[in-house]
Design brief:
11-stranded mixed β-sheet; binds threonylcarbamoyladenylate; binds magnesium ion; 4-stranded parallel β-sheet; 316 residues; alpha/beta
Length: 316
Amino acid sequence: MIPNGTLTLSADPAGIAQAADLLRQGLLVAFPTETVYGLGGDARNGEAVAGIYAAKGRPSFNPLIAHVASVEAAQRFVMWSDQAEALAAAFWPGPLTLVLPLRPGHGMSSLVTAGLETLAVRVPAHPAARVLLSEFDGPVAAPSANPSGQISPTTAAHVLSGLNGRIAAVLDDGPCGVGLESTIVGLAGEPTLLRPGGVALEQIEAVLKTQLHHHLPGDVLNAPGQLQSHYAPDAPVRLNASAAQGDEVLLGFGPVDCDLNLSAKGNLTEAAANLFAALHSLNDTGRPIAVTSIPSHGLGAAINDRLRRAAAPRNS
Ligand code: TXA
Ligand code: MG
């Protein structure tokens, strides 16, 4: 436990400088990205990275994303390729993570990659994250800042509700704009979608001018973190509901009668931004959750992926 509890820092120059300083000391700082809040630690410092796993209670076979300030910074750690260049040019900074072969002499803690020969890297777009990464001037390993298996955080309050007293600080810059984690594309072999997320598959395929392979459901080697039950509220979640039954609260999409609507006008981008906050607040009701059906094109693919995991039988 952190003796005086977790500090809340504001995302002004002084707060960001303090956050960078805490990272340099090997301490853990949650910070906003455009997708979700990340739980950051120095990716070259084994103790800091071990601390991330411990704070989250995360299974240690699950590797982490290294966040860096620029394409040039990413190239220090991974073997670059034409496909990486094309995707980085189109979507970085932004909600896309690339998995590439590690470069010799990369200096990452092996806990970041969980012993794999590849590294997941991302240049986030959030202004406070960008300033933090350039001030820190090194790779920051950061999973979503929630206890393992629980709902991802899109506000500093969500972070504190799960991790207060377990991390040094949270840098608070309000709600995240995209609201869903990054899309993860594997480029170590044939281009493969490892996790749907904040950049739609259709956009990625348009840039690469090829279709992505999809990792097989349950293929834990491809996307080691994609445990089936994840993003899970305490109460059961029922999908494709047409109405609430019994005690359920109904989460809706589009013009439906419900307790909470992800986007009354049926906009998938708005629904993605609202998804985790909606699950957090329905979870707080203590009642079972039913969700109406959501289209599966564009960001709908990532929304439905998260909802399926929230509804899956729990790991333990
Ligand atoms: O938007 C995001 O990606 C957020 C923010 C904080 O950047 N981060 C995030 O991290 O979602 P996390 O740890 O919750 O999810 C990272 C995913 C996991 O499923 C992990 O298994 C996968 O990335 N991953 C990491 N390194 C990998 C690798 N070398 N090969 C395949 N998958 C990898
Ligand atoms: Mg996560």
